[in-house]
């Protein structure tokens, strides 16, 4: 038995903690559900945990709910089910002043895809990087300036760049500035929403290497959201796959990408052959439903069933996410059997 217990934090809110008083995981998302008015449920039953210093990837196609997950974690959109606990504080229970106080404390920092949109074009780089420090308070101007220079240096930028404005530096440099701004307040968790999608291939690689270095040097945990498996593959420890607002599979990245257990993950992997040393020995086309298959007529059940070539009547009932002995969790009735239906999933190089 783990020594999990509930404790009351400084905000008077319940949270999980280890018997020793420290949190077991830094971030615990448990059964999270989010709805937007008429759009209906956008996230359902999402559970994810991130340990201190760990890098977790969340992959999913456009509209699968990736950004909503990020926003719900910091309380920018309200959850209508489940809870989010960060470093012992139940974020989903915070409202108003206490929620703003939690965000200002800077424990979680967001880094967005498009640095030009997220950086104020009228401010200097130094002012942008120092924004969070100014909001958090407690430092003299000289101390703030020192922390700004330190953050810029850490992301590989010369502090002299501090006097420029976002329009006067390159796209790769802007993404570094966004990272410098995030790490200046010494957060425990970076939530990076498509951090490299707007960059060209060489800048993308440099920023990915930088994220890896920041995690090692600062011990900061990172949740990296992306639609691109290739970007995640070299950086993350674990990966979670989001489809239609549900996590369909999660586990150590090498295993999930090397031997996917959910047909949707398998399709993603087969569509991105560059990611694995052990690519799936199957073309993506074989993981899509045959044209002559009858349309899926059930409304409930597995969200992926209408697109899944392996769906059976059983899939009309929503699959539970089964935790497996190898540290993975898969939500598929046929997780262990679908791949046998059409031959081996592993490639010949594995
Ligand atoms: N403010 C909002 N009001 C209503 N519906 C919304 C809102 N924001 C997002 N949605 C809807 O919620 C769903 C998930 O959106 P979200 O932005 O979380 O997806 P995503 O996976 O991040 O997509 P992308 O990769 O395109 O950014 C989409 O169907 C979207 O249209």
From TrEMBL:
<protein>
    <submittedName>
        <fullName>Oligopeptide ABC transporter ATP-binding protein</fullName>
    </submittedName>
</protein>
<dbReference type="InterPro" id="IPR013563">
    <property type="entry name" value="Oligopep_ABC_C"/>
</dbReference>
<feature type="domain" description="ABC transporter">
    <location>
        <begin position="27"/>
        <end position="269"/>
    </location>
</feature>
<dbReference type="InterPro" id="IPR003593">
    <property type="entry name" value="AAA+_ATPase"/>
</dbReference>
<dbReference type="Pfam" id="PF00005">
    <property type="entry name" value="ABC_tran"/>
</dbReference>
<dbReference type="GO" id="GO:0055085">
    <property type="term" value="P:transmembrane transport"/>
</dbReference>
<dbReference type="GO" id="GO:0015833">
    <property type="term" value="P:peptide transport"/>
</dbReference>
<dbReference type="GO" id="GO:0016887">
    <property type="term" value="F:ATP hydrolysis activity"/>
</dbReference>
<dbReference type="Pfam" id="PF08352">
    <property type="entry name" value="oligo_HPY"/>
</dbReference>
<comment type="similarity">
    <text>Belongs to the ABC transporter superfamily.</text>
</comment>
<keyword id="KW-0813">Transport</keyword>
<dbReference type="GO" id="GO:0005524">
    <property type="term" value="F:ATP binding"/>
</dbReference>
<dbReference type="InterPro" id="IPR050319">
    <property type="entry name" value="ABC_transp_ATP-bind"/>
</dbReference>
<dbReference type="InterPro" id="IPR017871">
    <property type="entry name" value="ABC_transporter-like_CS"/>
</dbReference>
<dbReference type="InterPro" id="IPR003439">
    <property type="entry name" value="ABC_transporter-like_ATP-bd"/>
</dbReference>
<keyword id="KW-0547">Nucleotide-binding</keyword>
<keyword id="KW-0067">ATP-binding</keyword>
<dbReference type="InterPro" id="IPR027417">
    <property type="entry name" value="P-loop_NTPase"/>
</dbReference>
């Amino acid at each position: 038995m783990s020594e999990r217990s509930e404790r009351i934090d400084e905000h008077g809110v319940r949270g999980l903690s280890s018997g020793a008083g420290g949190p077991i995981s830094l971030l615990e998302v448990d059964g999270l559900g989010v709805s937007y008015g008429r759009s209906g449920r956008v996230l359902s039953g999402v559970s994810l945990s991130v340990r201190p210093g760990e890098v977790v990837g969340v992959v999913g196609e456009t509209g699968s709910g990736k950004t909503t997950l990020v926003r719900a974690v910091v309380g920018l959109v309200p959850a209508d089910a489940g809870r989010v606990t960060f470093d012992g504080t139940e974020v989903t229970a915070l409202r108003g002043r206490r929620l703003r106080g939690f965000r200002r404390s800077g424990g979680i920092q967001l880094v967005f895809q498009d640095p030009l949109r997220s950086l104020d074009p009228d401010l200097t780089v130094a002012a942008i990087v120092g924004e969070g420090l100014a909001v958090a308070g407690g430092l003299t101007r000289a101390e703030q300036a020192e922390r700004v220079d330190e953050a810029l240096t850490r992301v590989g930028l010369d502090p002299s760049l501090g006097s420029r404005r976002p329009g006067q530096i390159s796209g790769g440099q802007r993404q570094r500035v966004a990272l410098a701004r995030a790490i200046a307040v010494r957060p425990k968790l970076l939530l990076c929403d498509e951090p490299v999608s707007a960059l060209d291939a060489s800048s993308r690689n440099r920023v990915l290497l930088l994220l890896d270095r920041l995690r090692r040097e600062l011990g900061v945990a990172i949740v990296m959201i992306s639609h691109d498996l290739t970007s995640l593959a070299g950086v993350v420890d674990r990966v979670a796959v989001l489809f239609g607002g549900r996590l369909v599979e999660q586990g150590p990245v090498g295993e999930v990408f090397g031997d996917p257990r959910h047909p949707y993950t398998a399709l993603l992997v087969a569509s991105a052959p560059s990611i694995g040393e052990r690519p799936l020995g199957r073309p993506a086309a074989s993981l899509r439903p045959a044209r002559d298959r009858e349309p899926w007529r059930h409304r409930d059940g597995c969200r992926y069933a209408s697109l899944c070539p392996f769906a059976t009547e059983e899939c009309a009932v929503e699959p539970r996410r089964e935790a497996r002995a190898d540290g993975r969790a898969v939500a598929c009735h046929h997780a262990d059997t679908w791949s046998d239906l059409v031959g081996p999933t592993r490639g010949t190089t594995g």
